[in-house]
Automatic annotation (TrEMBL):
Identification of the protein by name: DUF2075 domain-containing protein
Pfam families: GIY-YIG, SLFN-g3_helicase
Domain of life: Bacteria
Domain GIY-YIG: residue ranges: 28-104
InterPro entries registered for this protein in UniProt: GIY-YIG_endonuc (IPR000305), GIY-YIG_endonuc_sf (IPR035901), P-loop_NTPase (IPR027417), SLFN_3-like_DNA/RNA_helicase (IPR018647)
Length: 579
């Protein structure tokens, strides 16, 4: 479907009025438009309207003119309707933000993913609109390049699914109510399996709250948006001094989110913190959001002597003592009135992660106070939530019913070289395809870059050469990512090496952990809540969780290679039956 035109108009009242007089569609027809600054395309606004002349006059009387925007591009098509324009507007906003060239003046309150007649056909034409705008220099990269970027995947400009939108609405309503009572403190919990969009909830919410706080009466708020009711002066006043932060325990994901915040108006990289930075802060926060809450730490042996010292000092400063029961979650609660915890207990991977008892308590208390929100829609893996549960059940040594995977590409490999070649082929085709593995090999290349860490089937491989944004690093296609580099990220295809740390016992026939084969020293350290009792069963839980994460990274497909002969035969039978 083609036939659209892109018309250029100066962002000026006389130019708009002259253009409007040229054709009835210029005053009464659904269109999408882009306003930018000619010759300095760092600032941009995307909108849709059924009354272009009237809408441009509103913009000229408001903040858009004050920002120096001076050039309009109007996308017109005789087959456009309101639903199509809302959808095209949402796509362009996401693509522009993901391209990373612009400061977008859009809010994220009105993005839509609604169904409408012939949606798939119209969406094909959106790509033609994109290419036409790209030819005019408004995009620097292709759609696949943009959509494979962290800036796109972690963007606050998302069209939320139903349960995400309901959760955001309920959270904002609760927070606004609580903020009207200065003495009230609250903890909200969002719970969901891998790929349900917990990180997106946190990022979207921070952008939405910042937009409500900073909006002006002439700003653009979609009247039919489910968030429109929050854009009123009394809530703006209530949020005027809101101090909020996003805590992300994993370094790699934290650095990626900082890059997103740097490119997002009203957000700033300084809002993305480590748990230690919160504990050491002299300032109090109104709201702290915690992504991957299950990865917060206990009072246990830390990664370095410096961190051990910091943990002790923070406990003493906040609580007057360095008692063993204090955790990083206690720091966050001490430093903030309100907390939003994003949780999946089955993604804890080390003994010093928050204990299951602490996580269960937070979930239970939030549920009792009607502040618990469950995400169920699978946003990452195209095979859906049934695949995620199937993988977890297999790792628990259960015999789950085979799910229908549709077009999801799940394959089992007996030769690592063949799996590596298949991943390279997919990366060349759709990008963002990587090898990942359980921590079952020493990291020799960390000290000796010429050394190889993993040698199987005549294939020599090295672990990730960086722990910051490894997936997008220069050599990632030639390396193998660990759990600590991929948790929280999406891949198109994941080639998962299940190492000898997970095997089938020849005596019991059960899936067990191999203590000696598991090489993450911090992952089997007798520390935290397991200081006295850590045993093979506890280690098995963590290793199962690790592979549960790795096997649910791939959006389009997952390839599997298993080292242990017994486990290989067991999983080959079950995974091949799925295929």
């Amino acid at each position: 479907m083609t036939g659209f035109s892109i018309q250029h108009v100066a962002f000026d009242k006389n130019a708009v009025d002259t253009w409007a007089a040229e054709h009835p569609r210029h005053t009464n027809w659904p269109v999408v438009y882009v306003i930018d600054r000619a010759g300095n395309r760092r600032k941009l606004y995307v909108g849709e309207t059924t009354s272009t002349q009237k809408r441009m006059r509103q913009h000229l009387a408001g903040s858009k003119k004050n920002e120096g925007l001076d050039s309009i591009r109007v996308v017109i098509d005789e087959r456009f309707n309101k639903s199509v324009c809302l959808d095209l507007e949402s796509h362009l906003i996401r693509w522009f933000h993901g391209d990373g060239q612009y400061e977008l003046f859009n809010g994220n309150d009105g993005l839509t993913d609604a169904q409408y007649y012939d949606r798939d056909l119209y969406r094909e034409s959106f790509r033609d609109v994109f290419e036409a705008l790209r030819a005019e220099g408004l995009f620097s990269r292709s759609i696949p390049q943009i959509e494979n970027s962290d800036l796109f995947k972690l963007s606050p400009f998302k069209a939320l699914n139903h349960d995400q939108a309901i959760a955001i609405t309920d959270i904002v309503e609760g927070l606004l109510e609580d903020l009207q009572h200065p003495d009230v403190r609250s903890t909200l919990v969002v719970q969901g399996e891998p790929g349900t969009g917990k990180t997106i909830i946190a990022i979207f919410l921070m952008k939405l709250l910042a937009d409500i706080r900073d909006f002006q009466d002439h700003d653009d708020v979609q009247p039919d948006s489910m968030f429109a009711e929050f854009f009123v002066p009394e809530y703006r006043e209530l949020l005027a001094d809101l101090r909020m932060a996003l805590v992300i325990p994993q370094q790699s994901l934290r650095e990626s989110v900082k890059k997103v915040f740097k490119k997002t108006p009203r957000l700033d990289p300084s809002m993305v913190l480590t748990p230690f930075q919160v504990g050491e802060s002299d300032a109090a926060f109104d709201l702290i959001l915690v992504d991957e809450t299950h990865r917060l730490g206990q009072r246990a042996n830390q990664a370095s002597g410096v961190q051990n010292k910091k943990f002790r000092e923070i406990n003493e400063a906040l609580f007057g003592e360095d008692a063993a029961h204090y955790t990083q979650l206690d720091w966050i609660k001490a430093r903030s009135k309100h907390q939003l915890l994003l949780v999946d207990g089955e993604q804890s991977v080390r003994p010093h992660d928050l204990s299951p008892a602490v996580l269960s308590r937070e979930v239970r208390e939030a549920r009792d106070l009607h502040r618990h929100y469950r995400l169920t829609t699978q946003m990452r893996v195209q095979a859906g939530a049934d695949y995620v549960e199937y993988v977890r059940a297999l790792l628990r040594d259960e015999h789950p019913a085979l799910p229908s995977l549709g077009s999801y590409d799940l394959r089992f490999f007996d030769d690592l070289g063949e799996m590596q070649a298949a991943i390279r082929e997919q990366d060349a085709s759709v990008g963002l395809s990587r090898l990942v593995a359980g921590y079952a090999w020493d990291w020799k290349s960390r000290r000796d870059p010429s050394a190889f860490d993993i040698e199987l089937d005549g294939v020599q491989l090295r672990w990730n050469s960086t722990d910051k944004d490894w997936i997008n690093s220069a050599h990632s296609l030639d390396e193998v990512g660990s759990i600590h580099t991929v948790q929280g990220y999406d891949l198109n295809y994941a080639g998962v090496i299940i190492g000898p740390d997970l095997r089938v016992s020849p005596t019991t026939g059960r899936i067990v952990a191999d203590w000696d084969a598991y090489r993450d020293k911090k992952g089997k350290e007798r520390t935290g809540h397991l200081a006295e009792t850590f045993d093979d069963e506890d280690l098995l839980v963590f290793i199962r969780n690790i592979y549960g994460v790795l096997l649910t990274r791939g959006m389009l497909g997952t390839y599997v290679y298993v080292c242990d002969p017994g486990l290989r035969e067991r999983l080959r039978t079950r995974l091949s039956a799925v295929i």
